[in-house]
Amino acid sequence: MGELYDTRYTARTGKNGHATITARPNEDDLIARYFAPLAGEGGLALKDDAALLTPPAGHDLVLTVDGLVGGVHFFADDPPGPVARKALRVNLSDLAAKGARPLGFLLTLALPPDWSAKWLADFVAGLGDDSLAYGCPLLGGDTVKTPGPLTLSITAIGAVPTGRMVLRTGARAGDLIYVTGTIGDGALGLQARLGHLPHINEAAHAHLLDRYLLPRPRLALADAMAGHASGGMDISDGLVGDLSKMLRVSGVTCEVDLSLLPLSAAAREAIEADPRLFEIAVTGGDDYELLASVAPAEASAFEAAAGAARVSVTRVGEVRAGPAPPRFLRDGGEIVFRHGAFSHF
Q1: Domain 168-335: CATH class, spelled out
Q2: What pTM value is reported for the model?
Q3: Vertex 132: Cα angle to 129 and 136 (nearest 5)
Q4: Assigned CATH class of 24-161
């Protein structure tokens, strides 16, 4: 998985108060001990410097990559297992939006000087649990050192029936717009993590925190997306901004009734306590739900397939011809947002 990670030493204080020196493994040992057990067949037991992958017959490959940086995408004191799981899940969400099923992933892990064997073991345990649960084995990657912060990048590889990948550019006038799950939990969970939420009940607070730290990739909807959606993407930077992106590159517009948005009980409680949070919920990001534009003739089949997959879908608007920006309505009036989406820049 890349260049050798230098053997380093760390001092630990024992029960007698004396420091003991423990050697860290070099990169070959690190890979063999922690990552090789996660490798799929195409990973060649991580003994080569490349992976070998044959796509299923009659399928196209879909590739997506996302990077996570400590202090930007997660907090420095977040537990390593959930950090690893989030890194994989945000990529799986992209595959789901394209109608693809996962085949495997590549990992680049840049470790800062203070990493420990315990931290790495917990990281790999979380990654391994999700790799198994979602059928997405490790195929290879790279491990390097960095002065910080902790940085990781995952490239996920999936397969979709030939010619059926769902494109952002595929939305057409007359399509119905659907969202999966509930909107705003991730953004409000970040506010909870920052201590910016009003007082809500403990269970609601815990729900929002969990949705921020651990997205739910809608892979169960992949077949329905590939079979019935004309356009789609995942909602990572906020519903308002991501829907605007999809419509803009498709050359169309829409009118969305935000009063139809599916909100969790926890999100409703937070917004009722502070109505200003509604804007954060629809523009703040970290949902990792799916957007789908579906032709009216396919709508019943799409809804039925979603029901069979046990993924809730909600119709929130209709695509219209023309390049104008989308209109967002609530309680009979139009809302113009100050910031449509999360942006790194």
Answers
A1: alpha beta
A2: 0.88
A3: 120
A4: alpha beta
